[in-house]
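User: Quick sanity check before I run a bigger batch. Here is a single chain. Can you write out its predicted 3D structure?
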Amino acid sequence: MKIGQLLGVGNTASVYEWGKSKVIKIFHDYKSAMYEVTKEAKNAKIINKLNIRAPRFSKIMEYEGKTCLIYEKVEGPTMLNYIETKKYSVSYYAKLLAQIHFEIHQVKIDISSNLKTELSKNITNTEVITESERKIVLRILETLPEGKVLCHYDFHPGNIILSPNGPIIIDWLNALVGHQLADVTRTYMMINSNALPPNAPTWLIERKYRDLFGKEYLDEYFNLSGIDRITLDEWLVPIFASRISELKGKDQLEIINNLKSAIKNQ
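Assistant: Done. Predicted structure follows.
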């Protein structure tokens, strides 16, 4: 069988039609593909067993010498591309994103917390911060709660498909178990960042709409959860630090500067 129409392109992989009812996810980096595939397949098998709005994972397979993932095909646009450049649309979908996120965090999962461990590894291996900054970040991380909820950890409008059967959450590669505010903080950081995905829609490019989206998302999440939002500032420090190695150029520099400011505010 040959791959069909290109459905989406992310930072790590592209997704194509695979027959009538499935999709194939092909990773960009051949060298790291096996690690990424194994990691995501492990997460996807866990997600399959939970009551979560996610496409069913089918299997791992080889395609033209590359190790790939096969998933159930979900029809519909992403939330990212469906939002209109209007206040009511931005506000509505920001609140919906928060509601879906809160829903994920209510799922019971019998897996040990690993989010703080992963953050610690990333921060320890980040080369572009000083040793003094690293020590401060790790000390702050140590004081933060472990938590034991399912965290998507790449939760943004581009990973929500608005299907005829309701919103579906895709791309569980980075899923971890930890504190929900770590997950919320990362989402807010990505929304608030100047970094843009390829072919970003107008509402995301215009700062006033992106700021509105971030505000409405946070307000709705904290309203639903009842959690004290002051701890968001504490989580920003390790979340910024662990994000640095994922980026390059001006996008990386923005996060480094945000980290320095967040450290000063502690």
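The CA atoms of residues 43 and 103 lie 18 Å apart.

User: Great, the batch can go ahead then.
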